[in-house]
Structure formats: structure tokens, C-alpha cells
Amino acid sequence: MARTAVDGPGGRTVARRNGLRPRTVLTGLLVLLVVAVLALLVGAGELGWQRVLAEVVAQVSGGHSPLSEREAAIVWELRAPRVLLAGIVGAALASSGAAFQGVFRNPLADPYLLGAAAGAGMAATIVVVFAPAAATWIVGPLPLAAFAGALGGVGLSWALGRSSGGSGTATLLLAGVAVAAFLTAVQTFVQQLNTDTIKQVYTWMLGGLNVSGWREVWLACPYVGAAAVVLCLCARLLDVLSLGDAEAASLGVRPGRVRLLVLVAASLATAAAVAVSGLIGFVGIVVPHIVRLLAGSSYRVIVPMSLIAGAAFLIVADHIARTVLPGELPLGVVTAFAGAPFFVLVLRSARGRLR
């Protein structure tokens, strides 16, 4: 396991582990399992957590279920896919946020930095305003459009950054700002063509996991899974990039190729998350920083633990969104309530590094 030399008490040099410890992973997985089970047992429907637990035990052991067929359908066709989808989306956004922070060496970078949110919002608005009824489609047009729009926004930012002649991260960031502004303007123009759809558009943009089965899970899982594998494999290279491009090149790493690979994987995961959940803010900023505070500053720790912590965080947030009031709160509102104060703390702590 890799170690980093640091100054200890009395001027002594001590070694600090900066790799991923099995105990850390097991603790994170245990917390995630507990959170997921609790979210499955307790919901808006008055089923009783004891009866739902007996249903889960019956499914595992082959025993007798205390639930009726309708009640069992609520558990396995509504609650279970929603809990799993919340975990997938949270893992995607948190790990992508960690990857963006590593690539841009900016603690305030988030998964929507390069125009993914603006592209998804524009595409979703176009579908809401112009597309035919979703019932005529084999797969709903809104998730497909959001997925394509998010990838298109990131691709346009990358192409603009490359065509401007710059090769650094600052040029790419400026390109992302320009593309996001343009796509947002297009979205606003399209909305004004049919103002009756404004409520539907903004409901989607506030985020939510309105699942009616397992379709959304199967839609997002392959993309998020593939992206997660790439990001975890590239975590060590993000540590090398933090030393600077010259130092990374001297160690045999090609910074440009690493950034491209990480950005493609992170953008793919973000696009898949946006396609099934709308725009959910703060997860990609808050969770990596919590992991950094609790588990260490190495991206070999931050990226995989952000996958686990992001899944647990969004499962909790979604559970609050669907149970705290008689009606359901938009998920993005819940994450904003939790994330905005933490974002202020992150901004204050990062103030010296951003000057």
C-alpha cells in the first residue's frame, strides 16, 4: 500500500497511508446496506415495517409472506427499484464530482461543469414542447433526450475548448460556461413557444425519481457501471495529475489523455443519472468533500468511497423527499437544503486556494 512521508511530532518523518483500506470500504458498504434496507422497510404507504421485513425474509427463505399481492407489488415494483435507482444516481453524481475535482484541481467543480445540465435541460424542454405522446414510444423520449443532450453539451464544450487553441483546463472551463449560457438561452426560447409546459419542465429540472418499475434502473445501470469502473481505475492517475502536468509527464503519464478519459467516463455517468432523475444539485460537491474529510485526500480513496457515500446520501435524501410531507418534495430541493450550507463551508475553506 502506498505511503506518503509527512512531518510528525518533534520533526520526525512518519509514513501515512493514502491507499484504500478494506475497513473503510466495509464500513461504507455496511452503512449503505443499512440505509437501503431502512428505506425499503419504511415508506409513504402504511404497510408496517415489521410486515415488510417479514416479506423480505419470506422472499429470501421461501417462507410465507404476510403481504397481499398488491402490497408486495408496492414493495418490489415501487420501493425497491426506487431505492436502487437513488443509489445508482447518487453514486454516479458523487463519483463524477470527485473526478471533475481531480481533473480541474478545483474543490468546487461538479458534474454539470461542462454543460451537461444545460444540454439535458434544453433537450428535455424540446421533447416536452414538441414530442408526440410518450405512450407511442417504446422507451420514453424524455430520458433519451436528456441523456443525448447532456452528452452533447459536454461534447460541444470539449470541441469549443479544443478549437480555441488552448489546451489547459481553464480554456475548457470557459468553453463550458459559454456552451451552458447558449444552451440555456435556447431552452428559454423553446419554453416561450409553449408556456403551458413550463410547470412540467421545471418539475423535471428540480429532480425526482418517479419510477413505475425497473425500466429506469436497467436504463441507467450499464452506463453508470461502466463509468464507475473507469473512474476507479483512473483514481491513481488523478493523484499523479495533482502534482502538475510536468511532474505527471516525467512519471510517464500523459495528462491530456488521462483528462479526456476521465471526463468522458464522468460525463457518461452524469448523463445517465440526469436521464432518469432530472437535475439534482450539490451531490457531486458535498459527498466528495465529506469523503475527503473522513477518509483522506487521495483520489484512490475519494473516488470509490464517493460511489458508496453518494449512493447512501441520495437514498436518504429521496426517502426524506417522499415521506416528510403528505405530498412528495422534489429531490433537488432536499439535496439543496442539505448541500447549500455545506457548500458555503467548502467555499470558505477553499478561499485561499481559489485566489
From TrEMBL:
One BP annotation, GO: siderophore-iron import into cell
First-listed, main subcellular location of the protein, grouped into a coarse class: membrane
Topology of this chain in the membrane: Multi-pass membrane protein
GO cellular component: plasma membrane
Signal peptide per UniProt: none
Highest taxon listed in the record's lineage: Bacteria
Compartment list: Cell membrane
Protein family according to the UniProt entry: Belongs to the binding-protein-dependent transport system permease family. FecCD subfamily.
Protein known as: ABC transporter permease
